[in-house]
Specification:
This protein is mainly alpha-helical and about 180 residues long. It is built from 7 helices and no strands. About 85% of the residues lie in helices and about 0% in strands. Helix 2 packs antiparallel against helix 4. It is elongated and about 55 Å long.
């Protein structure tokens, strides 16, 4: 999905002959739809893996906030990597309109979406039909990212990152479920 979203943004930039600055916003808008789907696919397995190994992690003295932080690091890294993949596919299709600034914004958006996926995965973990919950939560992340980018432009990535960070912090502050 990240590859397709980036290629769609690159195609838009090439067809409309956008300069590098204009192409940044379009790439972010396309990625706000594609990245939540791509990151959401790994959110539940990461959180479920932690949940299944919870007994071992507790026995080895790993705290709940450390476990949430570890899940966040994994999902933020996956999101950032998928953001880089979206940029690479867009650069391949668009050619001259792809820039280093666009790459940085897409990696940042991917990381922010990954941070949001921590809370989405935790909401879905341990529930029958949990994958449906992840889809709903990540659709909300995509809509929120789209609105933030439409309202604030590329700086809307900071809004998505703040929402993801707040969700992860709230999860870390919560007492671990038995």
């Amino acid at each position: 999905m990240a590859w397709i979203g980036g290629a769609g943004a690159g195609l838009m930039a090439r067809a409309e002959q956008l300069d590098a600055e204009e192409a940044v916003w379009w790439a972010l808008v396309m990625a706000s739809a594609a990245l939540p789907v791509a990151v959401g696919a790994v959110a539940l397995p990461v959180i479920e893996g932690d949940r299944r190994l919870g007994w071992l992690l507790r026995a080895s003295g790993c705290s709940w906030p450390a476990r949430v932080a570890a899940s966040a690091v994994v999902l933020v890294a996956v999101g950032a990597g998928l953001g880089a993949l979206a940029w690479a596919s867009g650069a391949l299709v668009a050619g001259g309109s792809a820039s280093a600034a666009q790459a940085a914004w897409l990696v940042a958006l991917g990381g922010a979406v990954g941070a949001c996926a921590v809370r989405a995965g935790a909401w879905a973990a341990g529930v029958d039909g949990g994958s449906g919950r992840v889809v709903v939560a990540m659709a909300g992340v995509g809509i929120g990212a789209f609105v933030a980018l439409g309202t604030f432009g590329p700086v809307g990535v900071a809004v998505v990152a703040a929402a993801g960070g707040a969700g992860a912090l709230a999860l870390a502050a919560r007492r671990e479920a038995a």
